[in-house]
């Protein structure tokens, strides 16, 4: 209810998430709400920590203070990520959003390491912890607030597919766990003599550390180049195949330059018999229309295939049946036949899954086995096979 109210109130045209301005408003909203909630939580927990003398509570308070900085970084990151392209960055600045999430993860790790050290010190030199009902109730309230903030950020992050907001959500839910541990610490420490506060402080710090590591993993992947979005892969392939005279597609490669900022290239199979001018017009139209529709800078390469020759079509069908026995092969393409006396050079490419283990070794084995299978069935065929890697999503078809 509150989340929807905030979105409706502060984000105009909230459903148009492909628009950079709308996306920026989502980022600002998540950042500003994060700053406000975390300042409230820091004040609550810091006061409780001072009153009770609990290092676990104080550690949790300063974790919330670091979250204020994290939310501020999120706001600045969204602002910089939406700067227009310039001479030095022709594809824009969208990856800055990933860098802002990376900075959030580093801040979380710094807080975690700092309070591991402090908590270990409290175990070595224990100090009394005072339990009072009002501070305890404030901690419970803070848990509820942080849980709501996690759900709020997740909602925003899922809506606009933002790694920065998703990182904030993960950070917030880890705070729910750590604050719960702190609440348990306040109850137990007043009843036992051994340093529960310091021990649970270490546990809180380890949860914070785990959260930071997860954030780093989630943000480093797109910077290194992760698997493209499966829905985007399907949409691009389906759109290209919808144009006349295009009978097949392969070798789709997608580069991300930030959320909703993509450059893609794909090979399209077209009849070799069609006029080069006519097919160029079709390809040119497809590039422009699909780029606008999917917000992707798309480049299409034409691969002419001979689909009018009966012998070639017969061999294509024979090869297709043999390839069905090879699970690592997704598809094949660019098949052509060159007659050399009694033998026929059957030349084609196969596409294999990108995660095949020991890729170079297994590629050679795969090709050797496929050649052997073809020659066993058709001795007068001389297969010449090239291997392409599928850099899209995992598929078995």
From TrEMBL:
NCBIfam families referenced in this protein's UniProt entry, alphabetically: CDF
Gene3D superfamilies linked: Cation efflux protein transmembrane domain (1.20.1510.10), Cation efflux protein, cytoplasmic domain (3.30.70.1350)
GO molecular function: monoatomic cation transmembrane transporter activity
Annotated ranges, domain Cation efflux protein transmembrane: 33-224
Pfam family, one: ZT_dimer
Record localization: Membrane
Organism this protein belongs to: Clostridium cellulovorans (strain ATCC 35296 / DSM 3052 / OCM 3 / 743B)
Membrane topology: Multi-pass membrane protein
Superkingdom: Bacteria
GO cellular-component term (any): membrane
Protein name: Cation diffusion facilitator family transporter
Domain Cation efflux protein cytoplasmic: from-to ranges: 228-304
UniProtKB keywords: Membrane, Transmembrane, Transmembrane helix, Transport
Family: Belongs to the cation diffusion facilitator (CDF) transporter (TC 2.A.4) family.
Stored SUPFAM superfamilies: Cation efflux protein cytoplasmic domain-like, Cation efflux protein transmembrane domain-like
Family annotation (InterPro entries): Cation_efflux, Cation_efflux_CTD, Cation_efflux_CTD_sf, Cation_efflux_TM, Cation_efflux_TMD_sf, CDF_Transporter
Principal subcellular localisation of the protein: membrane
Residue stretches spanning the membrane: 26-59, 98-116, 128-149, 198-216
């Amino acid at each position: 209810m509150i989340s929807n109210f905030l979105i409706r109130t502060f984000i105009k045209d909230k459903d148009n998430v492909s628009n950079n301005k709308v996306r920026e408003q989502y980022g600002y909203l998540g950042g500003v709400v994060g700053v406000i909630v975390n300042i409230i939580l820091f004040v609550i927990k810091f006061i409780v920590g001072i009153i009770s003398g609990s290092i676990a509570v104080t550690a949790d308070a300063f974790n919330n203070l670091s979250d204020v900085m994290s939310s501020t970084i999120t706001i600045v990151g969204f602002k910089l990520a939406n700067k227009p392209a310039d001479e030095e960055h022709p594809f824009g600045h969208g990856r800055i959003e990933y860098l802002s999430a990376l900075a959030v993860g580093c801040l979380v790790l710094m807080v975690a390491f700092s309070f591991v050290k402090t908590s270990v010190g409290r175990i070595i030199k224990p100090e009394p912890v005072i339990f009072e009902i009002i501070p305890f109730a404030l901690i419970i309230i803070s848990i509820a607030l942080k849980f709501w903030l996690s759900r709020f950020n997740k909602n925003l992050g899922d809506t606009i597919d933002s790694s920065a907001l998703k990182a904030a959500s993960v950070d917030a839910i880890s705070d729910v766990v750590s604050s719960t541990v702190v609440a348990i610490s306040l109850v137990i420490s007043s009843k036992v003599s051994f340093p529960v506060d310091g021990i649970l402080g270490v546990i809180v710090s380890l949860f914070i550390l785990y959260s930071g590591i997860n954030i780093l993993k989630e943000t480093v992947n797109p910077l290194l180049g992760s698997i493209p979005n499966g829905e985007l892969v399907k949409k691009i392939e389906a759109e290209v195949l919808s144009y006349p005279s295009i009978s097949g597609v392969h070798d789709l490669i997608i580069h991300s330059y930030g959320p909703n900022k993509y450059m893609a290239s794909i090979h399209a199979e077209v009849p070799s018999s069609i006029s080069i001018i006519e097919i160029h017009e079709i390809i040119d139209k497809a590039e422009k229309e699909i780029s606008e529709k999917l917000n992707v800078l798309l480049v299409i390469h034409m691969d002419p295939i001979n689909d009018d020759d009966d012998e070639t079509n017969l061999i294509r069908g024979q090869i297709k049946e043999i390839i069905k026995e090879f699970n690592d092969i997704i598809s094949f393409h660019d098949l052509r036949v060159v007659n050399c006396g009694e033998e026929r050079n059957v030349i084609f490419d196969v596409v294999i899954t990108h995660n095949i283990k020991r890729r170079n070794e297994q590629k050679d084995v795969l090709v050797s086995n496929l050649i052997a299978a073809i020659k066993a069935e058709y001795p007068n065929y001389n297969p010449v096979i090239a291997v392409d890697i599928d850099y899209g999503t995992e598929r078995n078809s």
